[in-house]
Amino acid sequence: MAATFASRCSRVGRSLLGGLSNSSPGLFSTSHELTCGNFFSQQQRTFIQMRTVLKVVDNSGAKKVMCIQALKGKKGARLGDTIIASVKEAHPNGKVKKGKVVYGVVVRAAMQRGRCDGSEVKFDDNAVVLVDKQGQPIGTRVFGPVPHELRQKKHVKILTLAGHIA
Amino acid sequence: MRLEKCWFCSSTVYPGHGIQFVRNDAKIFRFCRSKCHKNFKMKRNPRKVKWTKAYRRVHGKDMTQHYYIYMLFQDSTFEFERKRNRPERYDRNLAESVLKAIPKIDKIRVSREEAHHKNRMKGKKQKLQMEAVRELKQGISLVKAPSVLQKDPSLTLPKVKVGVSRQQSEDNHPMEE
């Protein structure tokens, strides 16, 4: 009883309220694992979709954005994909202001992404770098590690600005 | 392609296995399987988890490089692992000699690990024997009834001596089992 309630809680907390069902197969294992009692460490990380709040890791002025659309991908965006987002929180004097609709490239995702050698990478949080329609970053600095999946997606500019490449 | 080490258990992670977790301070944690990954998420310290190599090194169960500090060559067997992270300028002769040396070094390292293990387990046989004798002394009533022992004193536990006598006490063991 408690386990199903907890699993329902986690599902609601993490997925879209509107009812976009996440068809990632890992969810079946989540409800089973939650019965073990380790509630916080058995989170099932999923895609970045509508209403996902992401951290902004460049100096474009925004601090938090909320995803309103994942370009490409029915279930949502993953590491290296572009999203359309709305700025929810911004620095008082920055290039972007609160309420602006911007494009962003996901540079860190809590959901693991498979690499071509078969291994998987995952990061600690969800983070974006704001870009313009052409894909050029708006800011001039990028903080934190970025994956080298961006090279394949042709976001070379972000890679050059980055401090660490994962 | 590189063979990495699992952060938790120190086993090798072959390509196609495991998960890499990148923390926001750009530190990369590699795990060989979900067991190690889950232990990491539980914030367990590998130095306290018995089955990891870190624990075994810290508690002296496995050979570390500090153990034989006076043996200079000991350092080299572990030095090679550390040297992999510093790229060296390519030198054909050096590469050739290193390739020749690799199996030799492996052999030496294995033999030293065996010697360390033997050293650690020294005196185990003796200890087991003493414990068995004591157990037998305490529980001789399970083997033979005390009235029988009093009647026939030759059936009491003989002193543990090398050779024939020891065989007699060993004969009592299977009966006790």
TrEMBL record, chain B:
UniProt xrefs under InterPro entries: L24e/L24_sf, Ribosomal_eL24, Ribosomal_eL24-rel_N, Ribosomal_eL24_CS, TRASH_dom
CDD domains, alphabetized: Ribosomal_L24e_L24 (cd00472)
Domain TRASH: 6-44
Keyword Nucleus: yes
GO cellular component: a single term: nucleolus
PROSITE patterns for the chain: RIBOSOMAL_L24E
This protein's UniProt keywords: Nucleus, Ribosome biogenesis
Places the protein is found: Nucleus
Pfam families: Ribosomal_L24e (PF01246)
A single MF term (Gene Ontology): structural constituent of ribosome
Biological process according to GO: ribosomal large subunit biogenesis
The keyword Nucleus is assigned to this record: yes
Top-level taxon in the UniProt lineage: Eukaryota
Gene3D superfamilies: Ribosomal protein L24e
PANTHER family linked to this entry: 60S RIBOSOMAL PROTEIN L24 (PTHR10792), RIBOSOME BIOGENESIS PROTEIN RLP24-RELATED (PTHR10792:SF8)
Family that this chain belongs to: Belongs to the eukaryotic ribosomal protein eL24 family.
The protein's name in its UniProt record: TRASH domain-containing protein
Species the sequence originates in: Cajanus cajan
